[in-house]
Amino acid sequence: MTVMIVHNCWYLYLPYLTWLYFDWWTPETGGRKSNLIRNWTFWRHLKDYFPIHLIKTHDLDPSHNYIFASHPHGIVTAGSMGNFCVNRSDFQKLFPGLNLYFHSNSCLFLFPLLREYVLSLGLVSVSKKSLSYLLSEEGRGNVSVVIIGGAKESLDAHPGTFMLYLRQRKGFVKLALTHGAYLVPVFSFGENDLYKQIHNPKGSWLRNVQDRLQRSMTFALPVIYGRGIFQQSFGILPHRKPIHTVVGRPIPVQQTLHPTQEQIDELHQTYMEELRKLFEEHKGKYGVAEHETLTLQ
Length: 297
Fold this sequence. Notes:
Its EC number is 2.3.1.22. Keywords: Acyltransferase, Endoplasmic reticulum, Glycerol metabolism, Glycoprotein, Lipid biosynthesis, Lipid metabolism, Membrane, Transferase, Transmembrane, Transmembrane helix. Helix 8 runs parallel beside helix 10. The longest helix is centred in the C-terminal third of the chain and has 22 residues, at 261-282. The chain has one domain. By secondary structure, it is of the alpha/beta class. It has a seven-stranded mixed sheet with strand order 1-10-7-2-5-3-4, with helices on both faces. The chain has helices at residues 2-8, 10-23, 35-38, 41-49, 78-84, 91-94, 114-120, 128-135, 150-154, 171-179, 205-217, 261-282; strands at residues 52-56, 66-71, 99-104, 123-125, 142-147, 163-164, 182-189, 196-197, 224-225, 243-247, 295-296.
């Protein structure tokens, strides 16, 4: 059967493999957006389903490059994807002159056809090479959106929780210093409320299995459930919970080509303090109880 497929369909896969050979590094060099796909009406319906909102707190100068450090990962990163991957949010109106690039797990670009789809949405690799390529472009107003907690954080994405993997994540800070990119904390209130997750505390057999799979595959497999089409108790659809993605104050960063560990630690501490301030200032507006605080791992 395989021989028949290879023999009869070479005219389909051979041109595509040739294309892949010459196009392989595109996810590392700015990607390839398609406004045709980013403008689909489907994205407007998706935005209105939850709904998803974008909140601006400060102006951003398009003469600088930025790293949007986005939190939390949640299960499906709906807030960040809905606001920064498609053209149905108010981003261009609120932040004119800025070019968005959403950095995602590099394994997405290993699958034929899926690769072309995610590239068309504006996704690029989350690798150091990819970030450096965009942030080294001076004066172009590039915005690299990075979900700092990564896939590991999704395993702690339970409704009403605010646990972030951040204390040991300093690579984005080093890149900001190396390229002089301003750091911007971004928090999506409501992101963790879209799905319920089977109880998986650290040390449980389920969490141990999930952690092993995450380390080997680079993406996590949370056991989740949402709502159905006609009822809200169980199903695969996410719950209709409003998401408010708040873009915080930009932290100015002086370019330092070879930052020391002390400089990295100092800026990282400043970033964590700014993120806490952002959370505390806005949590009451978006349904978070006064006693709730961020937990940083």
